[in-house]
Amino acid sequence: MDFLESMQWLHGQRDRGIRPGLDTMQALLARMGNPQKGLQSIVVAGTNGKGSVCAMLSAVLEAAGCSAGTYTSPAVFQLLEQYKLGTSCCTAEQFAQACTLVRQGAEALARDGIYPTGFELETAAAFALFAQQGCGLAVLECGMGGDLDAVNVAENRLLAVITPIAVDHTRFLGDTPEEIARHKAGIVTPGCPLVTAPQTPAVLSVLEDACAAAGSRCIPVPEGALTMLEDTPKGMLLKPEEGEPYLLGLHGAYQCGNAAVALEACRQLAKAGLPISDGDIRRGFAAARHPGRFQLLGEAPVFVLDGAHNPHGMDAFCTGLEQMFPGREILAVMGVFRDKAYDRMLQRLSRTASGLYAVTAPGARGLDARQLGAAAEAYFSRVRVEPDPVQGIREAARHSDAVIAVCGSLSFLAEVAAEINKVK
Q: Where is the Mur ligase C-terminal domain (predicted)?
C-alpha cells in the first residue's frame, strides 16, 4: 500500500471501539513475525503527562545518540506525529511500509475470525515501523490503563514509568484512583524498575505492592524535585535541588512534575547501561516539543492550546495559566467528549477564566455545545454557544487583549490551530 491506501484502510478499521486485552494484539504480532521481540522498551502509563514525558525521553535519547522510536497517542495535528524516529515524524513512505505488514497480519487473523481494533492496528504499526527502521529501543505510551493496553505486549523492558494517576476512563479502569492504579501497575515486569510521579499514599502503596510482587524496584519522584524559576519564550527554567537549572522547551507550570519524572527516568536508563550523560539530558530537555500541550500561538490575542480533558488535567492547565498570565483576562474556548467529567472541569476553569465559548468536539463522542453551555451557566456569568469550533475561535479572537485558553479535548485542536494561524 501507499500512504493514502494505508490511511483509507486504517480508517475503515476504526469502528470496533475499545476492547482491552492482549490476546488479539499478541496474535496479530505473531502473524507479523513478532517485530517487538528485537526492541528494548520503555513503557509510560498514567492519567496525565504521558505524552510530555515521552517527548522529553525521545529528545534525550536522540541527544545521546540512541536509535529510538517513540509511539504516542492520540495524534493532534496529523497521524504521523504518533510515530517518531528520534524526534522526527516518520515519513509517509515508512508508515505505509509498516502498515502494509500490519494489514497482511490482520488479514491472516481475519481468516480465523479475529479482528483487531483500530488502536491495536495503529500500535502494531509502531512495532513494525521501529523494527523495519532498525531502532533498538522503543518509547511507548499506553493509550489507556496499562495491564491490558496494546503496548503492554512490549518485551525486553528496560523501564516502566507512571505519571500522576487520577480518575479517568472509569468505564474500563474503575471508579477510584486505587483501582485505576492496579491497571497502570500492570506495566511493571520482573526486574524492571518503575519510576513514578508523586502519588497519594494509597496509590503509591498499590504501585509498591506491584513492584514487590514482580521483584522490581519502585522509585518515587519526590514532590518539588524540580521548581520553575521562570517561563521564557524559549521555554521553562527548572531548578533541581542541586546543580544548575535545566531549560525545558515546553511551557506550563505542570511540566515541572513531568520533567522531574523524565529526569529520574533518564538517570535510571543511564544506570541500565544507556549512554546518557547530564549534557544529553540538558540538550534533550531544551529540544523537547509536544504539540497541543500548553502550546502558545498568536500575540493579540494570545492563544494557549492544551488538551486538558479531565479534572486533573484541567487543574494543571489552569494553574499554568494563572502563573504565566497573572492579572490578564482569560477567556476559554472549550469542547469536550460527553463521557468526561465536564462539570468538574467547568467548575475549575471558572476560577481562572472570566467567560466561556462552548463548542462541539468532533466525532460521535463529542458533547453538544448547547449542553456544555447549559452546564457552564452554573459557573460562568458569560457563556456563548458556538457549535463550530472555528467560529468559536473567530468570536474569541475579537478580544485582542485577552488570553484565549483552548481546552477540553485534543480532538479539535488541529482545526482551531489552523484558524488561529490565519488570524495571526
A: 292-409
> Average pLDDT, whole number, for the chain?
93
C-alpha to C-alpha distance for 135 and 165, rounded to whole angstroms:
30
Please count the structural domains in the chain. Answer: 2
For 312, half-sphere exposure in the C-beta direction (CA atoms, 13 angstrom radius) is 13
Please state, as a whole number, how many other Cβ atoms lie within 10 Å of the Cβ of residue 191. Answer: 10
Cα–Cα distance between 305 and 321 in angstroms, integer? 11
The parent domain of residue 276 ranges over: 3-287
Q: Do residues 242 and 305 share a domain?
A: no
Give the model confidence (pLDDT) of 228-281 as tens digits: 998 887 889 999 999 999 999 999 888 999 999 999 999 999 999 999 999 999
Residue ranges of the alpha helices (H) in 39-117? 50-63, 92-110
What is the C-alpha to C-alpha distance for residues 32 and 4, in angstroms, rounded to an integer?
21
Same domain? 281 vs 382: no
Model confidence band, residue 167 (pLDDT cutoffs 50, 70, 90)? low
Same domain, 231 and 346: no
The reply to whether 98 and 216 lie within a common domain is yes
Cα dihedral sign, 352-354-358-359: negative
Q: Write phi, then psi, for 403 (nearest 5 degrees).
A: -100, 125
Strand, coil or helix: 160:
strand
What the block records as the C-alpha cell of 213 is 510482587
CA 85/CA 62 separation, integer angstroms:
9
One domain, residues 319 and 216: no
**In the listed set 261, 287, 313, which residue is the last one of a domain according to the structure?**
287
Assign residue 262 the CATH number of its domain: 3.40.1190.10
Read off the C-alpha cell for 40: 528494548
Q: At 97, is the pLDDT very low, low, confident or very high (cuts 50, 70, 90)?
A: very high
Q: Can you tell me the distance from the alpha carbon of 367 to that of 364, in angstroms, rounded to the nearest whole number?
A: 9
| Integer CA distances (angstroms), 40 to 36, 139, 140, 141, in order | 8, 9, 11, 14
| Claim to verify: residue 124 and residue 192 sit in the same structural domain | yes
pLDDT(423) > 70: no
Sheet order of strands, 194-196 included: 88-89, 83-85, 68-71, 137-141, 40-45, 157-162, 194-196, 218-220
